[in-house]
Amino acid sequence: MTTIARTAARAAPHPFGPRLRLATAPTLTLALTLTLNLASAQAQTPTSTIPNGRLLASNCFQCHGTNGNGPGFDRLAGKSAADIYGDLKEFQSGKEGNGIMAKHALGYTDAQLQALSQWLSTQR
């Protein structure tokens, strides 16, 4: 008997038995594959169903109401996108003072202000 054969014959058995050792690799492979497929499916879930402007407008609801139809402050819903964008740019530039709207407007990029204006203009 060779040295390799003797070493293999003396190898300690797997602590959970040979059946578990054989079943473990395919089971782990299947579990990993299912997990990766689920993660991939979640990553590919379309978020484009919610317009970008809608997400940005969620910051406006406390004063201007849901969908821009708030009581007590300027009603934004239904105004033209150009008017809303122009007002926001004036707030951003400081022409309208240093109030809360100036602070809010400073937090948006031009592209975000355009998306926000466009979405609010479609609300009724």
Molecular shape: elongated
**CA-CA gap between termini:** 89 Å
Rounded average pLDDT: 76
Strand content: under 5%
* Helix/strand structural class: mainly alpha
Roughly what percent helix?
Answer: 55-70%
Give me the number of helical elements: 7
What is the ordering of alpha helices and beta strands?
HHHHHHH
According to DSSP, the number of beta strands is 0
Unreliable stretches covering 5 or more consecutive residues: none
Q: Main β-sheet: number of strands, strand sense, barrel status?
A: none
Query: How large, in whole angstroms, is the Cα Rg?
Result: 31 Å
Describe the model.
This protein is mainly alpha-helical and 124 residues long. The chain is 61% helix and 0% strand. The chain contains 7 helices and no strands. It has helices at 3-10, 18-43, 52-57, 61-64, 81-93, 100-106, 110-121. Helix 5 crosses helix 6 (100-106) and helix 5 packs antiparallel against helix 7 (110-121). The longest helix has 26 residues, at 18-43. The model has no long low-confidence stretch (mean pLDDT 76).
